[in-house]
Amino acid sequence: MIRIALQLLTVFFVLLVCIQTIVIVLAWLFWPQFLLTGNSSGHYGIIVVTLCALLFLLTLLLIGWYLGKPVYFMMVWIRHLANGQYDAPQRWNEIHSRKKGTLKLPYAVYKELFEHLGMLANTLRTNERALQESEQIKQEWTRGISHDLKTPLTYISGYSAMLINSEYQWSAAEQREFLSIIQQKAAHLQELVQDLNETMYGQIPLKAEEADIVELVRRTMADVSSAPWATNYFFVMDPEPCRIKVTCDPKLMTRAIRNLLVNAVVHNPEETEIAVRISQSHDRTAEIRIEDNGVGFSETLVQGDADRTSAEHSGLGLIIAKKFIEANGGNFTVSSRPNEGTTLSIRLQVAQR
What we know:
By secondary structure, the chain is α+β, with helices and mostly antiparallel strands. It has helices spanning about 1-30, 30-35, 40-80, 110-150, 150-165, 170-195, 215-225, 250-265, 300, 305-315, 315-325; strands spanning about 210, 235-240, 245-250, 275-280, 285-290, 330-335, 340-350.
């Protein structure tokens, strides 16, 4: 600020000296006797005073133009920032010299102010981008939970319908089993509803811990295969090792694998075979492969991205699974062709021992 004040004082002093010089030169040319003797008629005195007044006003106008031009430019820039336009103003290149890239006069007087406005624009742009990403992830999180709510609701609806069906006489043990499943799914519903209140800051909430991925997949497959709507599908599980420890969020991984298994049921005809194979490679990577011999879908869609594939064929399930797997540091790939089934591959790093 001291530099700006000094520059403004210098400009004012230079302009004032120039005006005084012009006044003296004009007086010398037209009224030399006035300067030499100091005596002049009243008529000439009025003219000199008027001339000085006009030149003084001209000085003020020049100073106002010199100071006001960059100030107006900054006001326009600030108005653009207030309207959410964070790019440099249209005349940004015009106020810079082409060779050196520095600000031209009189804009160079406010060099620090222009630098701070540029920093402010970058900060606002970054904050807006982060806010948009956070809002997008929140929407995806909410949409994913809304999708996952359908699965326990289907269990509850199916088993409750079986219980109230008067055509069948269920034993007490069967009724207790059905009610136990309904209670479990109700608890799952409550858990999903609580997840809606998760506070998210630009990323999926992750609570990582060491878990046995083989047991996690086994429980999830048993849960899906026992559903009333999956009774006519054939499930097979073939884990190579009996235990594989990985670091992940068990709840999110369970939701991801459940979505993939539910997709394999919902989007394929009855009597489809669904095989789950788990193996561990030498590079300490665990692979979970979910294979089915169902209808499949176009390979051209698979070569695009999993999001588009799922949106056009497999619903929201693949999108949710992909997001959760990647949030856990894993890799998710899809391979499928029409009438040749589908293979889904999940790769996770094995936990360090």
